Amino acid sequence: MTALFALATSLLWGLADFGGGLLTRRTPALTVVVVSQTIAVAVLGAIVAVTGAWSEAGPLLWYAVAAGVVGPVAMLSFYKALALGPMGVVSPLGSLGVVVPVSVGLLLGERPGVLQFAGIGVAVAGVLLAGGPELRGAPVQRQAILLTLLAAFGFGSVMALIAEASTTITGLFLALFVQRVTNVLVGGAALYVSVRRGGRVLPEDGDPGLIVRSLPALAFVGLADVAANGTYAIAAQQGPVAVAAVLASLYPVVTALAARGVLKERLRAVQAAGAGLALVGTVLLATG
Length: 288
Known about the structure:
InterPro entries: EamA_dom (IPR000620), EmrE-like (IPR037185). This is EamA domain-containing protein. The protein is mainly α. It has one domain (2-287). 78% of the residues lie in helices and 0% in strands. It has helices at 2-23, 29-51, 61-84, 87-94, 99-107, 114-130, 139-163, 169-196, 208-213, 215-238, 241-248, 251-262, 269-287. The two termini are 14 Å apart.
């Protein structure tokens, strides 16, 4: 079950990243973050009310608050990077955040088997290659890389924090709700500061109707990201964190394939090889 939930996480995150990257090409990244997360808050709030998850409130929710503070910084950095550089290059570098939860798992005493260690190495190498590295030193590329590395550390920290924020399913609903409320508060404050400094809320053409027309896509991005956090937390609780984290971090392959299918971005030979290695690593992790 760990492998199943972790792979579901990679699928959801991959599609959410693809959607977020597309949206930020016309709409300010902060607006995308705040609107998509506000929609997620509304949905999660209804779920918490129906399930009575408030009864699960406790000290563990501070992990969710911390994840909610780190998350917007990571998402904003990542969306800006996606808007600057090819998705197939930026997304794999973002998966380097897997180092954080894997390190936490090892520090907690987890010791994956030989096949799983091999799977971790093969899968991580495959994810990096799936982007077809193009580090040629252009200024925009350097900026995108720095933003992506910042996002990677943030994403990895969120993975580690949200896995510790609950011990039950209803508690997970509450933890995700608290995380998203914090996301909106932090993101909203950042958006306010940005506007005061001359930043934009609306798309470049100033058309508020574009945001309205984009609401279905914004809802998908916000809810897919929430669902991915949930499936990852379940995966990390049911099996080794190192295995769950690596399998969940295969999402760049999904993003690259989506970019290939929708945007017609051509996959280079190294990207195809990377996708193949990621698949081999997945098999090793699942069977080890």
